[in-house]
């Protein structure tokens, strides 16, 4: 499938924090285009501005210079009313609301919007709960009583409650054990295919990266250094890329696929 319709266009972006002589730039002239239907992974060292980039795409932060266009409009216009219908976000440290049960967490954005009766909000939330592989009996559980993998599923269902065409994931498999991580990747792959989503994901996990990405963007030196398939990017000469891909796990992830496997 080849799609050339851009969903996100980041053009010469500067992300600046602080003021006066304390000001510092996290991104300088960062360019990135994401096309419809892609599953793009963003990788980079800690503190290189991956989360900041997702927040720019979501319109929660504003460019110091340059521009961010998300779904055809300046990203800043996404915020507020109805934002959840356009972009879903799974935050890096995105805890669920601890005082609300699973179903209430999933239906949150829809309830906030205030246009549907309570029963319909619950019904919509129940559909999403099952879509992410949870069972109806999990609906009344409190967040504290869920496993790490279940928390991620609830957070995903919450992000998808209003059927947004674009999904942003910040370290979706961080903190999960290998089995839960593989299961969550399989779920993401399924939903991506079924719902025709565009997914932008930050991950430092090579297994997740190879399992899911059609394309990778490497963040280094305050910009997107290189984009390409995981294998293409791995060939690029740069200290970060060499450390990231050439370690034991990188070599294993890039080993030839056995016959009949996939
Ligand atoms: N609201 C803010 N105010 C000031 N500085 C900020 C703010 N948000 C982020 N930063 C700074 O921007 C830089 C990039 O942060 P960011 O959270 O995007 O890193 P990251 O690549 O996501 O790192 P990690 O892999 O650890 O999650 C860091 O130096 C951080 O301290
Ligand atoms: Mg981060």
Automatic annotation (TrEMBL):
<keyword id="KW-0813">Transport</keyword>
<keyword id="KW-0472">Membrane</keyword>
<dbReference type="InterPro" id="IPR003439">
    <property type="entry name" value="ABC_transporter-like_ATP-bd"/>
</dbReference>
<dbReference type="InterPro" id="IPR027417">
    <property type="entry name" value="P-loop_NTPase"/>
</dbReference>
<feature type="domain" description="ABC transporter">
    <location>
        <begin position="8"/>
        <end position="246"/>
    </location>
</feature>
<protein>
    <submittedName>
        <fullName>ATP-binding cassette domain-containing protein</fullName>
    </submittedName>
</protein>
<dbReference type="InterPro" id="IPR003593">
    <property type="entry name" value="AAA+_ATPase"/>
</dbReference>
<keyword id="KW-0547">Nucleotide-binding</keyword>
<dbReference type="Pfam" id="PF00005">
    <property type="entry name" value="ABC_tran"/>
</dbReference>
<dbReference type="GO" id="GO:0005524">
    <property type="term" value="F:ATP binding"/>
</dbReference>
<keyword id="KW-1003">Cell membrane</keyword>
<keyword id="KW-0067">ATP-binding</keyword>
């Amino acid at each position: 499938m080849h799609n050339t319709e851009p969903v996100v266009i980041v053009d010469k972006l500067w992300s600046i924090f602080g003021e006066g002589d304390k000001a510092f730039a996290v991104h300088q002239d960062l360019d990135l285009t994401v096309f419809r239907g892609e599953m793009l992974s963003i990788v980079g060292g800690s503190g290189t501005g991956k989360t900041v980039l997702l927040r720019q795409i979501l319109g929660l932060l504003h460019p110091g210079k340059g521009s961010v266009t998300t779904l055809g409009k300046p990203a800043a216009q996404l915020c507020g009313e109805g934002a959840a219908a356009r972009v879903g976000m799974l935050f890096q440290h995105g805890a669920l609301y601890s005082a609300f049960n699973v179903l209430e967490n999933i239906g949150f954005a829809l309830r906030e919007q205030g246009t549907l009766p309570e029963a319909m909000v619950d019904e919509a939330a129940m559909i999403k709960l099952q879509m992410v592989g949870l069972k109806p009996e999990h609906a009344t559980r409190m967040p504290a009583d869920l496993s790490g993998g279940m928390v991620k599923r609830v957070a995903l269902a919450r992000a998808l409650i209003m059927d947004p065409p674009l999904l942003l994931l910040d370290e979706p498999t961080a903190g999960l054990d290998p089995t839960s991580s593989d299961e969550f990747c399989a779920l993401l792959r399924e939903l991506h295919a079924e719902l025709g989503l565009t997914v932008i994901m930050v991950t430092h996990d090579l297994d997740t990266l190879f399992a899911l990405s059609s394309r990778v963007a490497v963040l280094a030196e305050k910009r997107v250094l290189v984009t390409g398939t995981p294998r293409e990017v791995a060939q690029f000469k740069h200290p970060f890329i060499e450390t990231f891909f050439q370690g034991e796990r990188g070599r294993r992830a890039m080993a030839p696929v056995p016959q009949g496997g996939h």
